[in-house]
């Protein structure tokens, strides 16, 4: 039952995707607003959503030098029950510099998953992120951009 905070490893993203085959649909680490914009009821749907969502998280893990990804692991079971993504901005947060990381943008002719309301997803994130500069102090700061705990594990102190 003890919980341990650890740095995410690249292989953790595949482990998290595989949660779709183990746990009930929606008992996963898909962060808001994705569940609002893409509901799931089956393991197959949950896996497709996790693959899409974790691809974006992995992209940031590998390519965004501001990102620090953490996980909470149940030391008895070895399960990842929560994850977070913090960002360090030594010169302050800039919406202009960071917006492309949060939203889903078309590339190479790739199509959106039909099940996802990408327009609503992007609108929610753009609205939230654009406001940050109005209330955040200029200068060095940490920003928590992603925090989610599996539904079945909430209330245990992971997040």
TrEMBL record:
Q: Which InterPro entries is this protein grouped with?
A: Trichothecene_AcTrans
Q: Which Gene3D superfamilies match?
A: 3.40.630.30
- The superkingdom of the source organism is Eukaryota
PANTHER family in the cross-refs: GNAT FAMILY ACETYLTRANSFERASE (PTHR42791), N-ACETYLTRANSFERASE DOMAIN-CONTAINING PROTEIN (PTHR42791:SF1)
Put simply, this protein is called N-acetyltransferase domain-containing protein
Classification lineage: Eukaryota, Fungi, Dikarya, Ascomycota, Pezizomycotina
């Amino acid at each position: 039952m003890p919980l341990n905070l650890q740095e995410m490893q690249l292989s953790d993203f595949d482990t998290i995707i595989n949660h779709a085959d183990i746990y009930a649909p929606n008992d996963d680490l898909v962060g808001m607003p994705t569940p609002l914009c893409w509901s799931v009821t089956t393991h197959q749907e949950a896996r497709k959503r996790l693959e899409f969502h974790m691809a974006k998280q992995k992209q940031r893990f590998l390519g965004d030098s501001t990102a620090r990804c953490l996980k909470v692991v149940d030391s008895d079971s070895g399960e990842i029950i929560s994850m977070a993504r913090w960002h360090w901005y030594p010169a302050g947060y800039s919406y202009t510099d960071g917006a492309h990381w949060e939203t889903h943008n078309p590339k190479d002719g790739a199509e959106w998953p039909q099940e996802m309301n990408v327009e609503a997803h992007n609108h929610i994130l753009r609205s939230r992120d654009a406001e940050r500069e109005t209330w955040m102090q200029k200068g060095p700061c940490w920003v928590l951009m992603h925090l989610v705990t599996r539904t079945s594990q909430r209330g245990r102190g992971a997040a």
